[in-house]
Amino acid sequence: MKGSLTAFPCYARLLANVVKQVDIPLIQESMIGGGLIGLASVALMLSQGRIAGISSITYRAIFPSVFELWSLFFIAGLVIGPLLLVTITDFEAPSFNGSWLSILVGGLFVGIGTRLGSGCTSGHGVCGIGRGSVRSLIATLTFMLFGVITVFLLGFLP
Amino acid sequence: MKIHASALLSGMIFGLGLAISGMTDPENIQGFLDITRDWRPHLALVMGSALVVSTLFFQFVVPRLKGPLFTASFLLPLTSVVDQKLIIGAVLFGVGWGISGLCPGPAVAGLAYLEPKILGFIVAMALGFKVADWLSAQMVPKQSEQQV
């Protein structure tokens, strides 16, 4: 036990070296951004007991079955966040080079899929897996696998 | 009032997280899914970091709480069945995700960039929601399942 404790700085240095070797750009941004996404899910659950599943919240905001004003507020915040970043900081908005066809077909598939499958990257991927839901883990692995297959196949298109 | 303010704040933090981590850029998403060519590992890091926070919270904090701050109880999904609908849905979502490089969160957050394609994606997605509702009605005549 004592040995493993004194060896800790060595492990830390080893880990740091591995990270440096892999040289992932934007590693800090990824971790900070990811932490914020987790924090937002915690905030929504802690304040009003709701899962931060964006597909479901977007559905509620567009097609409200009962009066669910909170979903509109969440959606507004979701847009205001990046809007602040673009206006106040020197953050550059990404470019959208995909064709209109890929955007519309993709959007249709994402809509059908997330509604049938009861969730997306946030609801299943972050909240569901965090809750220890096997259903969400299987859904996440499935959409990741098919995302990989789709991009692999699309790569052969001219 | 408190419910709406906390929903707004949660949404803002979520949107900031998506933008800062580069997840609103479709190239980072497709780059992550493109494991055989020029792989971009960001998404794994982002999701991993988010999962550390959400897992600690759901596993260790939620069980010790009586309920949320401003409402009566935690609204957690009760379904645990892995059925055909879940799998077909996840497959279709994966395909759409790969084609466009967008999923619902980054798409809605991306409205901030005033990009017409993002609006087009959301309109198509809304249409997809309705198609799925119609499909569900065909698959199982009576069901009132909630989304995660």
What is the gist of this entry?
The complex is a heterodimer of chains A (158) and B (148). Chain A has 158 residues and is mainly alpha-helical.
Q: What does this protein structure show overall?
A:
The complex is a heterodimer of chains A (158) and B (148). Chain A has 158 residues and is mainly alpha-helical. Chain A has helices at 2-6, 8-22, 27-48, 54-62, 69-88, 100-116, 121-131, 134-154. Chain A has one domain (24-154). Chain A has eight helices and no strands. In chain A, helix 4 packs across helix 5 (69-88) and helix 7 runs antiparallel to helix 8 (134-154). The longest helix of chain A has 22 residues, at 27-48. Chain B has one domain. The longest helix of chain B is centred in the C-terminal third of the chain and has 24 residues, at 116-139. The chains are: A mainly alpha (158), B mainly alpha (148).
Q: Assess the beta-strand content of chain B as a share of residues.
A: under 5%
- The assigned structural class of chain B equals mainly alpha
The protein's oligomeric status is: heterodimer
Shape of chain B: globular
Give the distance, in angstroms, between the N- and C-terminal Cα atoms of chain B: 24 Å
Question: Biggest sheet of chain B: strands, sense, closure?
Answer: none
**Cα end-to-end separation of chain A:** 58 Å
Amount of beta strand of chain A? under 5%
Provide the residue-averaged pLDDT of chain A. 89
> How can the largest sheet of chain A be summarized?
none
Count of beta strands of chain A: 0
Total strands of chain B: the figure is 0
**Fraction of residues in helix of chain A:** over 70%
Per the principal axes of the C-alpha atoms, what is the gross shape of chain A? globular
Largest interface: A-B, 112 and 117 residues
Q: What are the segments of chain B in which pLDDT stays under 50 over at least 5 consecutive residues? A: none
Structural Rg of chain A: 20 Å
Compute the number of helices of chain B: 6
Radius of gyration of chain B, in angstroms, nearest whole number: 18 Å
